[in-house]
Amino acid sequence: MTKSIFQETVEQFVLSKDQVQKIINGLTDELVEGLSTKDPKNITQQPSFITRLPTGHETGLYLAIDMGGTNLRTAAVHLLGDGQVGVTMQKHEITHELKTGTGQAMFDWIADCTAGLLKTVAIDMGDAELQMGVTFSFAIQQTAINRGKVLAMGKGFDLSDVMGHDLKDLLEGGFARKNLNVKVSAIINDTVGTLVSHAYVSPSTKIGVILATGTNAAYIERASEVSKYNGPTCDQMILNTEWDAMGKAEYLPQTKYDKEIDAVSLVPGFQEFEKMISGLYMGELVRLALVDLIERNAILEFLGGKVPESLSQRLAFKTLFMSTIESDHSSDHAGVDKVFKTSFGIEGLTPEDRARIFQLIHTIGKRSATMTAAACVALLQKANGSSVNLDDPNEITTIGIDGSVFEKYPHFSHSMMESLIEIMGQDRASRIRLELARDGGCIGAALVAMVSESGGAV
């Protein structure tokens, strides 16, 4: 029987076992390549200069900031020992104007946000120098535990006078202009922060993952494998994989919608893996598929093939709408009606329309979870025999995951675990734990700042 246009569209997002294995193999090859490449265009597998995980007994009060793709978080972090922390945190939205303005304006704003935090927690600085740990959710070339050159940003950022500059200098320049005596004593990536902070609470944590506006991961590698590392001798090293920047056409199962997202992005051909799975792009994949289906009269036929203006705008269909729709468990998918009426002014959906839209959204969400699981398997296999032992029936390996997609998207963690079982087998997968790691950036940065100040490495 001939498949309908709708069926053909949805099936593009369903991954076969062979496609999943190609993703694992392709990412593994890129992980290996990133360990040694001297190509400045290859930003993967960045050494963090952090050589061990915390014990859970660290104590002290430290400032931290966590700069992500959507928000800046400022925090005063009190490490209490025994895996316990006290955190005073403030969240600030990073506006489009800031993202596309000057570097000086951005770092002055960060200093202003830090000053606001100090006022809130009533820290009297006096002449004392405050130590700060920084989590930076973008690619940097780390040259020391508190220094790194900004390599690339993405996620909608297009700042002037930032690329190639040392992040410590950029931040401390902003603090100096605002008369704040704050020293940047540690710089880490958000995934490194997630790994370090969750290991403080859960010692079996060996991998940290971010699943939010963007995506990335960190893991522990044998130092002998990291030939690009130029630093003090050590046995192991936490690596910031920058897996968001991985992905090649020969193994990524890109649909025409994925290719369209890439083509109109700020940097085509960059972060192709991320563009298939992260929160910034999942909703846009749904929108592009919906527009195509409407134009081909395969859905919402009462529109006569004409796409409403409200659905024509790039990024108009947010990943949040996918969460809202998948959170509705009613048999008639009333959540679809709610989103389309409230956000797009579209009414009159038939039961078949609602069921099809739900199916499309569920399939795209599940593809993201499956691809994320495949990437985790690539990391587990690469670390096997060093920080991870997949063959020990008594060893539990925890993957700490931070970010709105993992935390808030319905069934995402369940879909990831289902995929892990399918890929690894029930026995091995049963020894893998997927755990939510909230606010990993700030706590991880504080932990690394503490150890850096005392002259050691985590």
Automatic annotation (TrEMBL):
SUPFAM superfamilies: Actin-like ATPase domain. Residues 6-200 form the Hexokinase N-terminal domain. InterPro entries: ATPase_NBD (IPR043129), Hexokinase (IPR001312), Hexokinase_C (IPR022673), Hexokinase_N (IPR022672). Its EC number is 2.7.1.-. It catalyses: a D-hexose + ATP = a D-hexose 6-phosphate + ADP + H(+); D-fructose + ATP = D-fructose 6-phosphate + ADP + H(+). One of its GO terms (biological process) is glycolytic process. Residues 206-451 form the Hexokinase C-terminal domain. Pathway: Carbohydrate degradation; glycolysis; D-glyceraldehyde 3-phosphate and glycerone phosphate from D-glucose: step 1/4; Carbohydrate metabolism; hexose metabolism. GO terms for cellular component: cytosol; mitochondrion. It holds the Pfam family Hexokinase_1. Keywords: ATP-binding, Glycolysis, Kinase, Nucleotide-binding, Transferase. Belongs to the hexokinase family. PANTHER family: HEXOKINASE, HEXOKINASE TYPE 1-RELATED. This is Phosphotransferase. It comes from Entomortierella chlamydospora.
